[in-house]
Amino acid sequence: MRFLRRSTPSKVGADTSETAPAPTESEQSDPRRTTGKGRPTPKRRDAEGKRRGPAAPPPRTQREAARLAKANRPSREERRRAADERRERMAAGDDRYLMPRDRGPVKAYIRDVVDSRPHLMGLFMPLALIVVLSLLVPVPAAQQYLSMFSLVALSTMIIEGIFLGVSVARKAREKFPDEQVGALSTGWYAFTRASQLRKLRIPKPRVQRGANP
Q: Which of 61, 83, 94, 187 has its C-alpha lying 20 to 30 A from 104's C-alpha?
């Protein structure tokens, strides 16, 4: 009954070595095959954290917080450069730098319509200066004539602003039928745009006078 006899360790090892498949020549010659590292691959976040080192402790006192904020504050030259860039982008009509009331394609179209032709309302600021000067002139007759002229010019500007607001609102609704265009808000926006001198308008006009936007 020899087949019931327990095998010795030496025989077991010999049998295992005999049954284990030997690596083929292609596996031995292939340099891309690598053996296991025996440990899990670290995450990218953990590896970056080890390279950066421990985080700086938070400030303990108000003086330390003020010193840290002052150290991280941009210099005066950097602030001036950022302000100049923001001003240039705003003048160019970039929506990212415009005020909320100037953003959107509807407002850009309204500005183009207003800038495409001259308006008497563009003399509103010089007219206000004339009114102030008329109060300083010690001649009563000159004050009377200047006051009458200012009143007539102001009335004409108001009438022109009403017609301009109605016209711009109608054109904006035809141009953007899916947008909600309010007559009062559109008219007021067009009036304030037209009452400014062309060189002082922000954003800068992007159409020439006589154009058909």
A: 83
For the chain, the domains span 103-200
Sign (positive or negative) of CA dihedral 13, 14, 17, 19: negative
Q: What confidence tens digit (pLDDT) does each residue in 147-191 have?
A: 888 888 889 989 999 999 999 999 999 999 988 888 899 999 999
Q: What is the pTM of this model?
A: 0.60
